[in-house]
Amino acid sequence: MSLAVPAVLLVLWEICSRHAIVSPRYFPPPTTVGWVLVDGFAAGDLGTQSLVTLTRLGFAFATAAVPGVLLGLLMGMARPVRDAVEPYIAFIFPVPKITLLPFLTIILGVGEPAFVLTGATSAFFQIVISTLGGVQTMDPRLLEVGRNYGARGARLFWKVILPAALPAIFTGLRLGLGLALVALVAVEFIAAKSGLGHLVYRHWQMLSTPEMYAAFAIVGALGLLLTRGLRAVQARVLTWQEEIGRL
Length: 247
Description:
The protein is mainly alpha-helical. The chain has helices at 4-18, 30-43, 45-77, 79-92, 101-108, 112-136, 140-148, 153-190, 196-205, 209-237, 239-246.
């Protein structure tokens, strides 16, 4: 059923484009886009550009995830840290992170470090906020039970606090991954000379709409596959949630 609606929309799109109900120049038939995808991967260009975007995304996500989770946990457990850092998080979070690109290129120059850090900042704040929320919304009875069983310090953190916050952490990681991908595609559209975003921009300038839609489709597929992959990791790591749900 989840595939029925997209399939129907694609069929309608195909019919409307083939019969010129919509302009084939601006809305090429999905089958044409599909053949462009096949030819592009066969020629190697689409695969190469996808790998460029994936590499940037991997570095950006790693750069954001580790410090983001650590800072979120620290803010949740230490009130002084939260009071000191939270105003800055609240100030910067609503700012579109693509606006940081000019400042980063001034500091780092036009190149991979500026591109990766722009994507990383997009994910970082979302991960911090989600992790902080996971710690703050933890059932206080869990802490009481842990302390009653003698858990203190590091043991309390590893056995009680971290497991309780993990669902929110994974939610933040999924959202952060999507935001990083959006930011990187925007960066590639504006400043980079490679990657899927650059392909979209290049084919948009030439009005090569089938190739433009093909690049769009790859970006969407990457976002879907990566977030589903993180969800699968979450389900494997948090098997105890399913056991609790059966009780």
